Amino acid sequence: AKRWRNVRDVKLYRDLLKFTRFQYPLDSEPVSSEDIKITVTHSKVTGGIVDKKYLTIIDFADFTYEVVGGKPIVWVDFAKLSERLKKTKVKKNMNVIIDIAYVER
């Protein structure tokens, strides 16, 4: 059976805009980079109004995986992520949840 692990982070959209990419250390090595899935969520924005009852969910594939000094690391491309988020009308003071799921080796 596959054992999934998660790394979860919450950032304000305005803080996310300060980075072009961001590093997330993993607790253990994934089976492969194909076994890493990144999901980004935030409250839905419709007509400029934030609706906390609904979520906008983005499957995000712009990341790189590497092992540095024996430590598995996922680099998330925040420049591309902020472009995607801009299209969802996310506001600067809103929380964005970044969830990195991976199958543990």
Describe the structure.
With 105 residues, this protein is mainly beta. It contains 2 helices and 7 strands, in the order E-H-E-E-E-E-E-H-E. The strands form 2 sheets. A 4-stranded antiparallel beta sheet has the order 1-7-3-4. A 3-stranded antiparallel beta sheet has the order 2-6-5, with no helix packed on it. The mean pLDDT is 95.
Task: Round the Cα radius of gyration to an integer and report it.
Answer: 14 Å
Count of helical regions: 2
Strand content: over 45%
- Low-confidence parts: none
Shape field: elongated
Average pLDDT reading: 95
Give the strand order of the largest sheet, numbering strands 1, 2, ... along the chain. 1-7-3-4
Order of helices and strands, N to C? EHEEEEEHE
The biggest sheet, with number of strands, parallel, antiparallel or mixed sense and barrel status, is: 4 strands, antiparallel
Number of strand elements: 7
N- to C-terminal distance: 11 Å
Into which percent range does the helicity of residues fall?
10-25%
Structural class: mainly beta
Task: Pick out its properties.
105 residues; mainly beta; four-stranded antiparallel beta sheet; three-stranded antiparallel beta sheet; 2 helices; 13% helix
Describe the structure concisely:
The protein has helices spanning 13-16, 78-87, and strands at 4-12, 22-25, 36-46, 49-60, 63-68, 71-76, 95-103. The protein is built from two helices and seven strands; from the N terminus they run E-H-E-E-E-E-E-H-E.
